[in-house]
Amino acid sequence: MNKHKRIGILTSGGDCPGLNCVIRSVVNHAKLTYDWEVLGIPYATQGLLERQTIPLNMHGWDLRGIDPLLNMGGTILGSINKGNTLACADEILAGYQALGLDALIAIGGDGSLKIIHELATLGNWNLVAIPKTIDHDVALTERSIGFDTAVNTIVDAINRLTFTASSHDRVMIVEVMGRTAGHLALHAGIAGGADIILIPEVAYTIQGLCDHLAQLRDRWHRKFAIVVVAEGAMAGLDDTGSYNCGLQGSDPAAAVTPKCGRGQYIAEKIASCSHNLVDTRVSVLGHIQRGGIPSALDRLTATVFGKAAIDLIAQEKYDKMLAWQNGQVVNVPIQDVVDKSPSPVDPHGYLVQSACALGIYVGEQVTGDR
């Protein structure tokens, strides 16, 4: 445990708030407790490919004694989420050895961790992984860095849009990220008081949306509504009509993927779903969801994950990912995480049922009897 070590750390995949908090925790604990060296690897595996490093120390980023890493979004190490990494596997593996690393800490989502785990297996790296994703789809962990902040960002947007929706009697459609998993839309929709939440895991119908909007108007005298739509929400079960935005490519599978996004798709479908024309507006939050100052919960999660990663290296326990389970930090085999990711929303789970109990339309499979 007292042997000097050189630790590499990298951030991979899409950025999110809280990554710099992990870096801060790793560097401080490694230096104060073990007197180890920590090297930042810029732009994920690209840094290993090019043998590039960024020396990290406890006060290297201070400004007049203020540590900015705790509240700085994004990642000071940079990140990439494109390219064929495995095509350059030999050069990347050689980079790990050339830099003289004793272990590598990788902060990434399910896709990034899968690729880095393959590289680690090929190169016999000492790897410890930390989950980050605003999609919340990394398996075997109840918390992932960035998710809480992203939810708060969306809820803030919903709060603002609710006032203008009520002022103009409009249906505001908020499109959020989530191609294969609807955790972000579901959590933010419930917390933000949405009337409709559409996610990839639950089928819906255009008629179901129209009926719900009509009920809000006729029974509850509500002249506005908030609809939260995950970008990967499937086409309506009863969707046979035309769509003005056009479709992507000639692949038949793309016929349910409009170029202008799922939010605009829903807007066009419900605009004339009753005798009373529905005035709709669409807000696509896009990469706004990835930015911003990390929330307190994301800072805490990042800090304990960073500390635990260094302790795993001290114990020489590798090929593990840190996870939050039952109120504490544990470690799980990375292969188990890869095998079970991405982790979708349970269509019959407690959160979906809670949304339905609050009168939120989520889809036909869970609300069709209403």
From TrEMBL:
Its EC number is 2.7.1.11. GO terms for biological process: canonical glycolysis; fructose 1,6-bisphosphate metabolic process; fructose 6-phosphate metabolic process. It catalyses: beta-D-fructose 6-phosphate + ATP = beta-D-fructose 1,6-bisphosphate + ADP + H(+). Pfam families: PFK (PF00365). The active site is at D135. NCBIfam families: PRK03202.1 (NF002872). This is ATP-dependent 6-phosphofructokinase. It comes from Richelia sinica FACHB-800. The gene is pfkA.
